[in-house]
Amino acid sequence: MNIKRKPSYFELILILLPTLAIIYAGFWGAYQFVSPAPPRNIAISSGNAHGSYYSFAQKYQKELAIHDIHLKVIESKGSRENIQRLLDKKVDIALVQGGTAYADEDLVSLGSLYYEPISIFYKKGLNLTRLNHFSGLKISINVIGSGTHMLASQLFAINHVNSQNTQFRYLPPEESLRLLKSGELDAAFFVSSVYSPVIQELLQNKSFKLFNFERADAYNQVLPFLSKVVLHEGIIDFKNNIPKKPITLLAPTANLVARDDLHKSLLILFLQAMEKHHGENDLFSKPGFFPSDKLTAYPISDVAKRFIEVGPPFLMKYLPFWVATFIDRMIVLLLPFLLLLLPLFKILPPVYRWRIRSKVYKWYEELQYVDDQAQVDSISQTEYERLNSELERITSEVSKLHTPLSNADQLYNLLLHIDLIKKILKSKFDAE
Predict the structure, then answer these.
(1) CA of 253: how far to CAs of 64, 142, 250, in Å?
(2) What is the per-residue pLDDT across 289-348, written as a single tens digit (0 to 9) for each?
(3) Is the Cβ–Cβ distance between 160 and 110 less than 8 Å?
(4) Residues 333, 98: Cα–Cα separation, whole Å
(5) Domains of the chain from N-terminus onward
(6) How high is the pLDDT of residue 199?
(7) Is the peptide bond before 243 cis (omega within 30 degrees of 0)?
(8) Residue 3's pLDDT is what?
(9) Under 8 Å between Cβ of 112 and 253
(10) CA distances for 275 relative to 35, 54, 230, 290, 336, angstroms
(11) How does DSSP classify residue 4?
């Protein structure tokens, strides 16, 4: 008798196919929640090509290029135009001056970056101690649409200085500097880092004075986005003692603002760049103060808040950007493993064993029938041949079964039982 001891591949396939279908359905459902990969091309709206916003945007561009992401730097007239570009979805991220934000829920701040002091330079011969003293003068307050223009208009309006009683000019910083030096302007209003070339040149020029905000606390009370800062004596140039005395200034903060749909992995890259380029101390802040979740133009992003509190995600600390991003996206696919795969692996072996056993057990029903027919007092020749033929058929069919070694005992038991019924049948026939 040739008993097949190979595993039943048909049974394996019969069990595995629906199992694989369930797993595939689970993965497909989970994949619907996998975030897309970060885009490789994004745009930032900066500012004037000669300003600090543009300079920092270029630094961000270099940081992202390390990770094979192209950041297009686009010039602008200033913060208001930057915000509008974000709202129109023409750019993904922008540098924005505090106090210039629209009330819009689709934008989030990644944090404040540094203080941007208000620097009002005026001719040395003028005695200007209050902003209302600027009434009647020729003043440049930057181009319309810029954050500087908006802030200058607010401050002068509080002091009743307006276009009806004052000659406002709407010029970019470089042009304002040129006309101030030529005498065509009496004063110029700037909101920029003290390290910008225009501000540095004016601080070194003895023909002009930097306005001292004596009422800085009052302005801060009216316009809370403005902070009071002090340009300490000699801090610009210790050798020549510039400035010659402490000067109180007002300062909004520069913010990095993004659309709320910008990929979170890209937000992390920008936050890392911010930490690198704005984490050191400057003339107005201590090390580690910036980037900050305070003094922001818009609500702070959840991603930025976590980054500022605990640093970058674990994966991005130790793995290349694209590897960390891929793993982070694929983590959601572990859900089918936890909810489907592990329970299925526990169920499959018993189901397989049951399927194999059922192939053996079904012949016991026919064997039982033959046994019942044999339980009579006498068996005729015809009946004996019929029942014996039935037993031979069962034996032949059972011998064709494919069973793994782990189930061979059940098959042998069946064959022993068949042989036992044969002996009982023969003994009864012989007794006749």
Answers:
(1) 23, 18, 10
(2) 899 999 998 999 999 999 998 988 888 888 888 888 877 777 766 666 666 666 767 776
(3) no
(4) 41
(5) 9-26+334-431 (no CATH), 37-113+256-312 (3.40.190.10), 117-251 (3.40.190.10)
(6) 93
(7) yes
(8) 45
(9) yes
(10) 26, 18, 24, 8, 37
(11) B
Answer whether 161's CB lies under 8 Å from 131's CB: yes
**What span, in angstroms and rounded, lies between the C-alpha atoms of 56 and 15?**
61
Phi/psi of residue 252, nearest 5 degrees: -75, 180
pLDDT at position 341 is 66
- Tokens, residue 24: 């595939």
Distance between CA 365 and CA 419 in Å, rounded? 15
* Residue whose C-alpha is closest to residue 117's, from 294, 284, 293, 288: 284
Closest CA to 60 of 93, 15, 87, 32: 93
Structure tokens at 348: 């499959």
> Please, which residues have CB within 8 angstroms of residue 216's CB and are 6 or more apart in sequence?
228, 248, 249, 250
Going by C-beta distance under 8 Å and a sequence separation of 6 or more, which residues neighbour residue 357?
407, 410
Q: How far is CA 209 from each of CA 116, 122, 124, rounded to the nearest angstrom?
A: 18, 6, 5
Q: Is 49 helix (H, G, I), strand (E, B) or coil?
A: coil
Write out the two tokens for 164: 């009806």
CA-wise closest residue to 259 among 96, 53, 395: 96
The Cα 164–Cα 208 span in angstroms is 26
Residue 314 has a pLDDT of 83
Helix axes 147-158, 79-87, angle to 10 degrees: 120
Q: Which of 352, 336, 253 is nearest to 300 (CA)?
A: 253
DSSP secondary-structure letter at 39? Answer: P
Low-confidence ranges of the chain (pLDDT < 70): 1-16, 19-20, 22-35, 104-105, 281, 332-342, 344, 348, 352, 377, 403-407, 429-432
CA atoms within 13 A on the CB side of 149: 18
Kindly state the DSSP code that residue 340 receives in the 8-state scheme.
Answer: I
Residue 60 has what DSSP assignment? H
End-to-end Cα, the chain, rounded Å: 30
Report residue 313 CA to chain centroid gap. 10
Helices 321-330, 264-278: axis angle to 10 degrees equals 140
Q: Which two tokens stand for residue 256?
A: 């990095």
Residue type, 105: E
The total of other beta-carbon atoms located within 10 Å of residue 259's CB is: 16
CB 280 within 8 A of CB 246: no
Determine how β-strand 138-140 pairs with β-strand 187-191. Answer: parallel
